[in-house]
Amino acid sequence: MTSLSPYAAIILGVVLALWLGAAVWALAVGRRMRQEGTQAQGKLERLATLLASAPAAPIIVHPDGRLEAADRLAKWLGKARVPNFVSELTAPDGGLEPEDAAALALEIASAQRAGKSFSLPVRGTGSSRLLLVRGAPAGPGLATSGGVVLWVFDATESQAEIQSLKGHVEQLREALEALAGLVEAAPFPMWHRTPDFRLSLVNSAYVRAVDGENAAEVIANGVELVEVAGGVTPQAAAAQAVAEDQPIDRMVPATIDGARRTMRVVDVPLGAAGVAGYAVDQHELEQARVEHRRLETAQRDLLDRLSAGVARFGPDRALRFWNQPFISLFGLRQEELTDAPLFERVLDQMRDARRLPEHRDFPAWRAERRNWFLSPDPQEENWLLQDGTHLRVYAQPLPDGGLLLIFEDRTEQVQLSSARDTLLRVRTATFDTLFESIGVFSADGRLQMWNSRFRSVWGAPEELLASHPRIDDLMRAVQAKLAKPQQSTLVRELVRAATVERKQRGGHVGFADGRIFEFAAIPLPDGNALFTMLDVTDSRRVEQILRDRNEALEQADQVKTAFVTNMSYELRTPLTTISGFAEMMSAGYAGELSDSAKDYVDGILQSTARLSSLIDNVLDLTQGEVGTLPLDRAPVELAKVAQTCLERLLPEATAKGIDLAITLKDSLGTVQGDARRIGQAIDQLLENAIRYCGQGARILLHGDGDQNSARIVVSDNGPGIPPARQKALFDAAARADQARNGGKPGIGLPLARQLVEAHDGTLDLVSQPGQGTMATIALPRG
């Protein structure tokens, strides 16, 4: 056996080591390549699966027209197999619409020549499926130069969605244009701010409000509509709206058209789109609100001053307002109403105060009144309370859902109405039973009312009167009743004068049956005229009788006056003879008389003097009654006249034991008159006092005066005169009757009054039984 050299052994070892290393390396490389192949195969399978599940089917078009395509393309084209060449795909029977097939052939050819991409929608023949073909030049790894890669998408659903989105976008565009037009046409300023709060859009109203030339200028210059209010700028307000993510509403002042206005500014956040805003002029509204509050205050004051009770309830049926008459009318307490009680509770309080009508089912009655809040029309009722109070209740629903109640106390009106109805019934009954014939004519001359006497006097049928005829027609129908038918014209004229001229006229008319009527037409306050007729036939006859009797009495009075005058003169002749012979006998012409004879002669003289005075008084009284009493007019010193009268009657008073005193003041003075007649009046008063006063009585003659008149008073402390007799003291006829009945005759007081009144003076007498009598003469200075 041949042995190797060491050098050969080393070389062999090295070769073996290298061979072993190479084997190991080859084994490692093979294992790694196997792993990479397995990974590539898996990746290929995954890519094939991904490609099969992709929404697009790939097609590789080689330069020679050969096609490599996915199997599902045949399904999309409605073919049994995939076309092998482009000519088959673009042929008329290739599964595409002819126009789409021709367009696809041109696009593929263009992509092969020019290498440009394209996108083309195509439809299958007789199919609703829409295919979107996207083409591009193929890369070097897919095909040689001139190859094209086509991606075919089934765009049926996406295209429908795209069309829908296009329609929606169109609607949004139209809505946006309409909104923009609306914003532009808005009568108040509107604007839009970008997210950095700069103006990006303003409308024409904004431009006009800031006196800008156009929107572009306003936006470029950032002209703000409102000023800084309360330290808040417009941009700060917009930022606040964005921060709070809600609209910000504020009232700020602004200068518009040179005038200060109050604007309501609203900033509305739009998210990423920025902030929109608008401003509404609130100046008139604020003024209206102020005016409304002022009117509401005035209305409250007015309602509080009304005599009617007023209560207002809100939409929640709570009491919001009441006036003082409401509290007084229903006996409510102020503290019970301050808590705004509900409508039902207020009715309960009224019922507790016994100020509601009695009802058997009060809850049902209260529920019916609660429906007043829902009633579309006002409600009105009349309440009769237990104490007899009549209330008119007016319920007015308010626009805000509340209720206004007005309570009017009509008790007095109801009582007056009842009294009026009673008076009307009484008037009607009285009117119909009057003895007078009465008719009422309206302003147009028509008969409105009449009584039964009117109908019977004229003899007019009821049907004629019921038709309310005019006065002309009525007179034509009844003029035959008149003695002189032409007098019907007089009646018509009287009614016309009363209704048209508002003048009262009267007259009389004779009827054919001999009756005589006095009539009058009287204007009434309401424009009508009252026509009255009174049968004066009997009164005319009585009047004639009385006239004849008066003439006879006047003749008898003249005879009486002449008789009294003649008798006065006739009586004076024998009286003068008697007194003359008595004076001669008293003077001793017939010889000396015995003492008893002298007494007889003195009695004759006193009696004749007394009789002469009575005759003069009767003559003066008669002349005073007929106004023929002679008087002289000259200055009269009343003190001298009064003193003379006192001295003349002093002996008679002394003889009866009567104290006759006199007190005359310097103010008595003088008057214009007849001294004898004045003295005669004083004598009558003094004589009357002496005649009726007993022994021990006192009579005072007092005189005083002023610059206008003089006064003479005769007073005594005698028995006085009963009131029943005082009325007849100055009546001469009554005094004569008293004398005939056994009383003390006398015409002194009637004569004294006539004498004083002849001087334009007055004579008054005051007397009380047991306290004396006082007679006062007052004479004017003139």
Structure characteristics:
782 residues; 49% helix; 22% strand; alpha+beta; 25 helices; Beta-Lactamase
The fraction of residues in strands falls at 15-25%
Give the strand order of the largest sheet, numbering strands 1, 2, ... along the chain. Answer: 2-1-5-4-3
CATH superfamily of the largest domain: Histidine kinase-like ATPase, C-terminal domain
Q: Helix share of residues?
A: 40-55%
By CATH, the architecture of the largest domain is named: 2-Layer Sandwich
User: C-alpha Rg, in Å?
Assistant: 70 Å
Count of separate DSSP helical elements: 25
Overall morphology: rod-shaped
Account of the 3D structure:
By secondary structure, this protein is an alpha+beta fold. The protein folds into six domains: 11-49; 54-154, PAS domain (Beta-Lactamase, 2-Layer Sandwich); 186-281, Beta-Lactamase, CATH 3.30.450.20; 288-415, 2-Layer Sandwich (Beta-Lactamase), CATH 3.30.450; 434-535, PAS domain (Beta-Lactamase), CATH 3.30.450; 631-780, 2-Layer Sandwich (Heat Shock Protein 90), CATH 3.30.565.10. It is built from 25 helices and 27 strands. Strands 2-1-5-4-3 form a five-stranded antiparallel sheet, with helices on both faces. Strands 7-6-10-9-8 form a five-stranded antiparallel sheet. Strands 12-11-15-14-13 form a five-stranded antiparallel sheet. A hairpin with a 5-residue loop joins strand 13 and strand 14. The model is unreliable at 734-745 (pLDDT under 50).
Quick summary:
InterPro entries: HATPase_C_sf, HATPase_dom, His_kinase_dom, HisK_dim/P_dom, HisK_dim/P_sf, PAS, PAS-like_dom_sf, Sig_transdc_His_kin-like_C. The chain is of the alpha+beta class and 782 residues long. It has 25 helices and 27 strands.
